[in-house]
Amino acid sequence: MSRVKRGTSALKRRKSVLKDAKGFRFGRSRKEKDAKVALRKAGVYAFAHRKDKKSEFRGLWMVRLNAALRPLGFSFSKFMGAFKKKNFDVNRKMLSEIAHNSPASFERIIAQVK
């Protein structure tokens, strides 16, 4: 069997790792070993934060709704309770969008809930 020198593939792998770690601070962008560790950690954070993002947006919709409801004499929890009793089928995201973009339509929804 002939001998295989791995210089080019090793260099390619190293360049790829360092390219992915570009912008990281300190030795993490210049040292292959640190860069590999940092990239692995970044992948873990990316996975976890994709899950967290869903929760954060749901919280944002609720805060927006509460801010839109307060001047109209409702709190978020009382509104959602009344909303569920009337069997409306609109989720928090859509309610938040309506409250944010078209307040007149939102006031009509609130009038139906009352």
Summary of the model, kept short:
The chain has 114 residues and is mainly α. The chain has helices at residues 7-20, 32-69, 76-85, 92-101, 103-113.
List keywords for this structure.
5 helices, 114 residues, mainly alpha, c-terminal domain of poly(a) binding protein
The CATH level-2 architecture is identified as Orthogonal Bundle
Any idea how many domains? Answer: 1
The percent range for strand residues is: under 5%
Amount of helix:
over 70%
The helix tally amounts to 5
Total DSSP E strands: 0
**End-to-end gap:** 84 Å
Q: What name is given to the CATH topology?
A: c-terminal domain of poly(a) binding protein
Protein described:
The protein has 114 residues and is mostly helical. The protein has a single domain, classed as Orthogonal Bundle (c-terminal domain of poly(a) binding protein). Helix content is 73%, strand content 0%. The chain is built from five helices and no strands. Helix 1 runs parallel beside helix 2 and helix 4 packs across helix 5. The longest helix has 38 residues. It is rod-shaped and about 80 Å long. The model has no long low-confidence stretch (mean pLDDT 91).
